[in-house]
Each structure stands twice: as C-alpha cells, then as structure tokens.
Amino acid sequence: MKKIALKNTARGTAFDYAGQSWILLENDPTGRTLCLSKDITETRAFDEGNCNNFAVASSNKYLNGPYLDNLADACNGANAFLESELDLTTNDGLKDYGTCTVTIFLLTVDQYRRNRDVIPNADDWWWLSTAFSTKSNGYESLARVVNTDGTLGGDDACYGYYGLRPACYLDSDLLISVEDDEATDDVTPEHAGEIIAALAEQFGGTFATEDQLTTALSFMLGTLRATREKEARHE
User: How many Cα atoms sit within 13 Å of 9 on the Cβ side?
Assistant: First the structure.
C-alpha cells in the first residue's frame, strides 16, 4: 500500500474515506475529484412528496443533513468534502430546475454517462438526480434510475425501494491508500513543464546524437522520480 493524492490516482480506483468505500470517477482542473459510493448505501424515496426536482427533494435534504453529518463525524473534524453546483437540466434538456448547491448528491445523467466505463453495476436499482422532464411539461414526478445492468430507466420519485448511491466532490489533494499498481505514472502538467524547460536549457532544444537523447530521457525520468520522492517525504 502507498499514500497518493487523488489527483494522481487512476479513474476507477476504489478507496476508503470517511468510513465508506468510494470509486474515483474523474479529476477536474479546479482541484476537485468526482467520487461515487462503491455500493448503494440504503433504499429511500427520491422524494417523499413525489417531486422530481432534486433541489427540493427529501433525498437531497437527507444526504446533506444526517448522512453528511455521519461522514463528517467519521473524519473527526476537518474533511475534504467540497460544495458544488449541481446542474439539474432534465433528461429532455429543460432547465426549469436550474442548479442547486450541494455537498453530497446523486449523479446526474451526464455524469453517469461520462463515467459509465468505470462505474461498477450495483445489485439493485438506484436513483440519479436528473428528472425525466419538468412540471411545466407535464412531468413533475418521474426521475431517472440506473438498472442493475447499468442501463437507464425511470420511475415515480415517491417509490422507496430504489437505492441511494451518494456522490461527492473531494479535494484532489486528499491522500488515500492504494495498492502500488493502482498509482498512476502520468506526468503532471507542472512537472512536465519544469522537465522540458530543464531539457531545453541543457541541450538547446536539439539532440545531436542518440546518446544525447538517451541521456535526456534518463534525466527526465530521474527528475520525475526525485520530485515524487520529495512529495512523499512531505506527505
């Protein structure tokens, strides 16, 4: 096992945090990492009042109330959970529901589709936060769900036998424990820039011989290795 920052971890990696197992879905340039619960945590209605607008749904209030409180307690204080604006554009493209500010949420259809390749199927159906359409278009109750085989369906928001599979954004600098072979060897942009600049200064931007190129590559790998070892010492 080794400690590694989320931003340097491969998509689809499973890890534990705040007393729960998560799947890393994607990193974004703003320092956030989108994560999904590895499993369905419980069955619960999308909304007990049968409303398909996640902004006012009972599942939203639960996830960002008691459920989030339990996660925070498991972290013993400071935690890496970040607030975000969730896009509630409906399945047919209507924007009546706008966005909502959340910390814990259900994946949108777009987030699910974008990361389907690394999302393992669950043993039950589970809710997404995307509505089929809106009340103004005659659909105030139908919300999207994911079937056990990963395909998409829909049902009335009041049904309490579908699962909640919470999602969140975590700080990409959060250190997690992973198996050694799960750590990515990608060169981060800032490290790549530093290495290229050093190569250009040392070799004038050209490689006259094969030996010179080999030396340059060895220098690049050595620099990267030294940088990572330095980061590890400060973790």
Answer: 31
Q: Which amino acid is at 65?
A: G
Q: pLDDT (tens digit, 9 = 90+) per residue, 108-146?
A: 999 999 999 999 999 999 999 999 999 999 999 999 999
Cα 209 from Cα 216, distance rounded (Å): 11
Rounded distance between C-alpha atoms, residue 185 and residue 192, angstroms: 12
Which tokens is 67 given?
């459920």
Tell if the pTM clears 0.85, that is, is over it.
no
185 CB contacts (<8 Å, ≥6 apart)? none
> Three-state SS for 155?
strand
Residue 85: how many other CB atoms lie within 10 Å: 10
Q: Which two tokens stand for residue 221?
A: 């790998």
Where b means 16+ CB within 10 Å and e means fewer, 7-32 reads bbbeeebebebbebebbbbebeeeeb
Q: Are 133 and 94 in contact (CB under 8 A)?
A: yes
Please report, to the nearest 10 degrees, the dihedral formed by the alpha carbons of residues 52, 55, 61, 65 taken in order.
150
Q: How far apart are CA 36 and CA 38, in angstroms?
A: 6
| Of the candidates 111, 84, 64, the residue with the CA atom closest to the CA atom of residue 169 | 84
Binned at pLDDT 50, 70 and 90, residue 46 comes out as: very high
